[in-house]
Amino acid sequence: LAGKTALQTVQDPQLLPEKCCVSKVAPSLLAEEFKGLGNTKDHTQLEKMMLVSLNKVIRASSIDLNDRVGLIVSTTKGNIDALDPRNGFPANRAYLANLGKALQQHFGFQTEPIVVSNACVSGILAVIVAKRYIEQGIFDHVYITSGDLVTPFILSGFYSFQALSVEACRPYCATRKGINIGEVAASALVTKDKRYLSPEAVAILGGASRNDANHISGPSRTGEGLYRSVEAALKESHMEASDIDYISAHGTATPYNDEMEAIAFDRLGMNDVPMNSLKGYFGHTLGASGLLETLMGMQAMHRNTLVPSMGFQQLGVSRPIDVIKRMEKRPLRVFLKTASGFGGCNAAGIFEKVGAGI
Are 184 and 147 in contact (CB under 8 A)? Predict the structure, then answer.
């Protein structure tokens, strides 16, 4: 809301030979927060981030962690830095299952942790999976924690695609130059019991995931996977495109992704729905981005505030879309969160204020 960004251009040969623009969690802040947990066990950086984040949600909700409580961990690469022996961890810590077990053991979850790792849709997909577990009667409550790191492994991958920008990203803008990578941990509770809800809570009305089966790294030129994801989410929610007040889109500021999204939203008849990408504030936080941006969407709804898409100057896609340029107060009841990623994956979730219209 203050118009601040965590993105910074850095020259760090340990990350990348070239300059890059990233957002990173301050080591001193993480150390201070982690120390507050009173835990002396040796944990990786990502584990520390997730433990600090998830601890706040568990303490706020005060739910007994019995066999009716699930844990979902969403991430793209997990403890990928464990593959570097200089970090002092055995390489098997990079297995995603071991990340889940570390969190389970710390908090004492009775149920086996579920890892959702489907490229950059993992965060929003985790929310959809949690919803389904509750609807199927498997769990009454599901905690979700999402996270990814800025590491040489991840940066080198995007660098090889020539997709990184040395400047802060500008999603959907005609002058966009590429993606920024960010690191974060975000956590949430999905529950069927309204007693445990926070003031800004929302209900997830519908969610869907579709793969466009186009290319290992390139999105469908027709936006087919995203189009079908949103279409299915609307159907499950018993909603029409006209019912959506705001779209929290993926918006990576790469040429193909932003164009694909604009085509999909145009096909859906959502040209006039206000939309933004939050990547200009946090960077692309990979498997955590969907959950992080859902939480920001909840706050936008709670405050009835449309947040600008940071960095946007001039429309640079072929279809007309309503990118939010300045902060605006307006009544908000329903929002759509979308995500797309490598391998052709796409996901969409539709959220409504709890008690809206009652």
Answer: yes
Among the listed residues 334, 214, 325, 186, the one whose alpha carbon sits nearest the alpha carbon of residue 270: 334
**Predicted TM-score of the model (pTM):** 0.96
Q: What is the mean pLDDT of the chain?
A: 96
Summarize pLDDT for 99-154 with one digit per residue, the tens.
999 999 999 999 999 999 999 999 999 999 999 999 999 999 999 999 999 999 99
DSSP state of 308: P
- What pLDDT was estimated at residue 286? 98
Residue 120 per-residue DSSP state? B
- Report the Cα 138 to chain-centroid distance in Å: 25
Residues contacting 244, CB < 8 A, separation 6+:
270, 273, 334, 335, 336, 350
Give me the DSSP letters along 248-293.
E------HHHHHHHHHHHHHTT-TTSEEE--HHHH-B-GGGHHHHH
* Helix axes 27-35 and 45-61, enclosed angle (nearest 10): 50
- Measured from the Cβ of residue 199, the count of other Cβ atoms closer than 10 Å reads 7
289: nearest Cα among 245, 350, 341: 341
* φ, ψ for residue 206, nearest 5 deg: -160, 150
* Spatial contact of 163 and 316, defined as CB atoms under 8 Å apart: no
264-278 b/e with 16+ CB inside 10 Å = b?
Answer: bbbbbebeebbbbbb
- Residue 1, burial from CB neighbour count under 10 angstroms (0-12, 13-18, 19+): exposed
Whole-Å CA distances, 66 to 51, 62, 139: 19, 12, 10
How many angstroms separate the CA atoms of 356 and 358, rounded? 6
Query: How far apart are alpha carbons 241 and 302 in whole angstroms?
Result: 21
Shortest CA distance to 128 belongs to which of 337, 354, 355, 341? 337
**Sorting pLDDT into bands at 50, 70 and 90, what band is 218?**
confident
Query: Can you tell me the distance from the alpha carbon of 277 to that of 81, in angstroms, rounded to the nearest whole number?
Result: 28
Distance CA 47, CA 100 (A): 9
